[in-house]
Amino acid sequence: MSGCSSDDSADGGDSAAGGEPDKVAYITAFGAVGRDAFVWVAKEKGFFKEAGIEVEIKEGAGNVPNLTALKAGQVQFGALDFTGAVIQAGRGEFTEWRAIAAIHQRTLLAVMTTKDTNIASPRDLAGKTMATGAGSVTELLFPAYAQLAGLDPKTVKIQGAQTTALNGLMASRRVDALGTFLLSRGALATVSKKEVVVLPYSDYLGDLFGNAIITTPKLIQDDPDLVRRFTDAALKGLQYSLDNAEEAATILNKVKPSYTVAAGKGEIDAMAPYVPPNGGAKIGSMDEGRVARTIAILQGAKLMPEGLTPAKVADFTFVPKT
C-alpha cells in the first residue's frame, strides 16, 4: 500500500499537486452480488479516485476467509457480517479488526419459507425442519431469536447445509424453512416458483447490525486520513446505489456478467430499507450503545464469554452521527 499523507493536497491523494493515489485492496462480504455492488459503483463513478485512492476489489467468501485475508495483509478494507465477527472477536478467534461503518443498520438474517408450508410466524416452526449454513451466524443466533419470539428452539430440527444448496432444499420441500439472508427472497421465489414468507430476525433482535465495513486497528492508527477518505467514498457509493439501483446493478453486471441486472436491482431494492439510520444520522453511522447491547445479547445467548467491549470491535470516529 503506497502511503499518502493528508498534507499532500486539500482534497487528498490524486490531485493537481501530483500526489500518487493510495493503493488498497478491498474484499466484499460475499462474492459479487447486489448487497456489495456499492464498492464497484464507488470505483466506476470515480468516488475513490476523487478521494485519492486506487482500489483493487476482491470477491469475499464470508467472515472467516475475509478476516483471514485482512489479518494476512492481503486486503486493507473489507465487508462482513458484523454480528458474526463480534462473536469471533469475543471468542478470541479474530481480534485485529474494527468496524468503521455500518452497511446495514439492521441484521439481514431471517427465517424464510414458502407460503404453502403454512408457516406464518416463528411459533409455527415448532416440529419443523430448518436448513441453514452449518455453523453460520443464522444457526448460532436462532436459539436467541426463537426464545424472544416465544418458540422453544429445541422443537425445531436444524439441518446444516452448504449455503448454495439452501434454496434448492426449500424448493424441493426437503425442509420446511431456511435460516438465511432476507436478500435471497427473490432467488428463492424464482427457484421455488412460490410465494415466499420472510420472518426477519430483526423483528426480535433489533439492535443487531447487518454487514459492516472493516479495517485494521493498525491502519486506523497509522493513517486515519486514508481510512476516512476510503469510508467517505465507499458510503457515497452506497448512497448512490440506493438512489440508482438499476445503474448500480448494471455496473455490477459488467464485473459479473453471470449476475443479471434484474437480480442485482432486486437485491439492492430489498436491502434499501435496512440501510438508513434512525433519527437523521448519517448513512453508515454506528451507535456505541447498540454495539454494547449487541455484545450483551450474544453473551446472554452463551455465544461468547464476557469481556468484550464496543471499542474492541468498532471505531465510531469515522462516521459521526450527525
UniProtKB/TrEMBL annotation:
It comes from the Bacteria. Residues 38-248 form the SsuA/THI5-like domain. It holds the Pfam family NMT1. InterPro entries: NMT1/THI5 (IPR027939), SsuA/THI5 (IPR015168). This is ABC transporter substrate-binding protein. It comes from Phytohabitans maris. The lineage of its organism: Bacteria, Bacillati, Actinomycetota, Actinomycetes, Micromonosporales.
